[in-house]
Design a protein that fits this description.
The chain is α/β, with parallel strands linked by helices and 259 residues long. Helix content is 38%, strand content 20%. It is built from eight helices and eleven strands. A nine-stranded parallel sheet has the order 9-8-7-6-5-4-3-10-11. A two-stranded antiparallel sheet has the order 1-2. Strand 7, helix 5 and strand 8 form a beta-alpha-beta unit. Helix 3 runs parallel beside helix 4. The model has no long low-confidence stretch (mean pLDDT 95).
Length: 259
């Protein structure tokens, strides 16, 4: 089921929306970098708040979000606190993690809030916290920086995540071989067939998984992450290159009557 926010449509079977992460540590730099990306016309930006030097201070998070609200009035903002267990910089306990999530959501500035499926005891309860305190949609995520599980395991993970009631899912895995990339793509395509009304972001990380970041239109991933400066995960492609490749893929699919 398509989802449109601030004129940006998220759906399978179309070019994935390109999201650019910002990992600055200081409040002024965060606002400045996001403002610059907005000026460049980037339609979706992720604030990786786990890198923020004030992430343990609820008021500090709220102040940054307050400053960002007018900046992103026409730009989709994803608020993310990535834990160390899933490749991020946040090392607090679950209570601190949920409080940081709530601080970002309740500001009203975020259009999406990322919640890690395995970092909370009850994902559904945390999803409800976000939905009840803000208009933000929830991306329920899982990141494995070590391996890519078998397709059946990935399918089961996605089923469990989908049952929690999020607005979108995200699955990122690390390939050890090129066949792991195919496993991720098969799982993505299979999820779309099984759950046509659910939206999924998927990616295989690192050099071997790079193809997954530009093939979402064919396999069913509705967002891809690209870098504008420092990458926030291995394998991210520079924004301009990513945009060019997605446009070429879409054009050729359309020209051949498959899009």
């Amino acid at each position: 089921m398509a989802l449109t926010i601030k004129g940006v449509t998220f759906d399978r079977g179309k070019p994935p929306v390109i999201c650019v992460p910002v990992t600055a540590q200081k409040a002024g730099d965060i606002v400045s970098e996001i403002s610059s990306l907005v000026d460049e016309g980037i339609s979706m930006i992720e604030w990786r708040a786990d890198y923020f030097e004030g992430i343990g201070n609820r008021k500090a998070v709220e102040d940054v979000m307050k400053a960002l609200k007018p900046v992103v009035k026409n730009t989709v903002l994803l608020f993310t606190v990535r834990t160390a267990a899933e490749g991020g910089a946040f090392e607090g306990d679950e209570d601190a993690y949920v409080d940081a999530i709530d601080a970002g959501a309740s500001s009203g500035a975020a259009d999406f809030v990322d919640i890690e499926f395995l970092s909370v005891q009850s994902p559904r309860d945390v999803i409800d916290i976000v939905h009840n305190s803000s208009p933000a949609k929830v991306i329920l995520s899982h990141h494995d920086f070590e391996v890519t599980e078998e397709e059946e395991v990935l399918a089961g993970q996605l089923e469990d995540m989908n049952a929690a009631g999020a607005d979108m899912l995200k699955l990122a895995v690390m390939p050890q071989t090129m066949s792991d990339l195919l496993t991720l793509l098969y799982a993505t395509y299979g999820f779309g067939l099984a759950y046509p009304d659910s939206l999924l972001i998927s990616m295989s990380m690192g050099k071997d998984g790079m193809l997954s970041r530009i093939s979402g239109e064919m396999f069913g991933s509705c967002v891809t992450f690209a870098s504008a400066g420092k990458a926030s995960a291995p394998g991210q492609i520079p924004y301009e290159d990513c945009r060019t490749m997605l446009s070429l893929i879409h054009k050729n699919l359309k020209d051949q009557g498959t899009a």
